Amino acid sequence: MTEDFPAFALSEEQQALREAVRALADDKIAPRAAEVDRTAEFPWDVYEALVKADFHAVHIPDAYGGAGADAIATAIVIEEVARACASSSLIPAVNKLGTVPLMLAAPASLKERYLPPVARGDAMFSYALSEPEAGSDAAAMRTRAVSDGDSYVLNGVKRWITNAGVSKFYTVMAATDPSAGANGISAFVVEDSDDGFSFGAPEHKLGIKGSPTRELYFDNCAIPADRLIGAEGEGFKIALRTLDHTRITIAAQALGIAQGALDYALGYVKERRQFGRPVADFQGLQFMLADMAMRLEAARQLTYAAAAKSERAMAGEHVEDLTFFSSACKCLASDVAMAVTTDAVQLLGGYGYVSDYPVERMMRDAKITQIYEGTNQIQRMVMARQLLK
C-alpha cells in the first residue's frame, strides 16, 4: 500500500530531501564536527544553517508553521545530519522528542503557543523524564507537581536532559499523585525563564559532546495550570507513546553515524597501500566491509518500516505493532552502529585510533545510541512483552 511508504521504494521527494540534507551537511556541518567534539560547545552556526534550510524541526505540521514532514522524511534528515555530526543531529531529533507529547495529547491552545516558535527556529524543545534514581525505571520518579489554585508547583531533579540550557522549552514529567505510581504522573511544559527552574553543570561525556547534557532543578517552580499536557495522571502513558515515535529517531541517528564511518572506511581502504597494493584488495577486509554494509542496510529498512508505522499512528490509526517495531529498530540500528564504527576503526588501524581521523569520534558517538531513550536491554524486554502478550 502506498500509504505505508515502503522503504524499498522511497519517493522521489524523499530521495531529493536526502540529497539536499547531505549537501548541507557536507558543506556546513561536517567541516565543524571535529571542532564541535573537541570544544564540547553547542554549534549555534549549525543550528542557524539548519533553521535557514528548515531542517531543524521538520516534523512540525504545516498548520503550526512547520515543514509538515512525515516520519520517514524526518528520519532521513536526522540520518544525514548524523552522518556528518552526531551532536548536530540531536537538534532535529530532540526537537521532535520534546514536541511529540504536545502533538499527541496537548489541547489546541498549548500547541498554538509552543509549536510555532520551534517551527520558526526561535526556540528548541527538550524532554525531561529521567532522574538520578529513575532511569530505566522511569515510573519511580520523585519530582513532584502540586496543584495550587491556577498553578502547579514543581520540586525535584531531572537528569540526562539532552540540549538542556540551549532549549527554551521542556516537556517535564512529574508526579501529581505519588500514591498512584505510574498512573499518578503528569506532563507539563516548563520554560527556561520560569522562577525556581535552573540547570546543573554540563556533563563531561564520551561522545555527542556538542550537545549539552545537564540536570534540571525545580525549587518551588510555579507554572500556570494551563501548561498541563493532557489530563492529570496521563503523563506516563504520554511518555511511553512518545517513545514509540522517537526511538525511531535514535535509530536514524545510529544509521547516520554508521554510514559516515562506513563511507570514510571505504575511501580509506581504497587509498591505503600495503604489500604493494590497496588494502581493499584483501579478502579479509572485503568481508568486513560487506558485513558492515549488509547489517547497516538491514537496520535502515527496519527503521523506515517503523517510521511508516509511526506516521500512520500519528494520523490516528491504531497500529498494533508500532511499539515492537520502534524498539526493534532502535535496538538493531544502535547495535549495528556500534559494530560498524568499531570495525571502521579497525580498518584504519592505528590511524583509526587518533582524533585526526573521524572514525574514532563516530565510535564514541555511537555508544550513546545503545543507552538513551531506553537501553537496548530495556528494548529487548519491551519486544519480548509485545511478543508474549
Descriptive account of the structure:
The protein is built from ten helices and ten strands. It is an alpha+beta fold and 389 residues long. The strands form three sheets. The chain has a four-stranded mixed beta sheet. A four-stranded antiparallel beta sheet has the order 2-3-7-6, with no helix packed on it. Strand 2 and strand 3 form a beta hairpin.
Task: Give a nutshell description of this structure.
By secondary structure, this protein is an alpha+beta fold.
Shape: globular
Q: What distance separates the N and C termini?
A: 28 Å
Rg from C-alpha positions? 21 Å
Structural class: alpha+beta
Instruction: Tell me the total number of β-strands.
Output: 10
Count of helical segments? 10
Mean pLDDT: 96
- Proportion of residues in β-strands: 5-15%
Helix content: 40-55%
**What about the largest sheet?**
4 strands, mixed
The unreliable regions are 1-5
Strand order of the largest sheet: 1-4-5-8
H and E string: HHHHHEEEEEEEEHEEHHHH
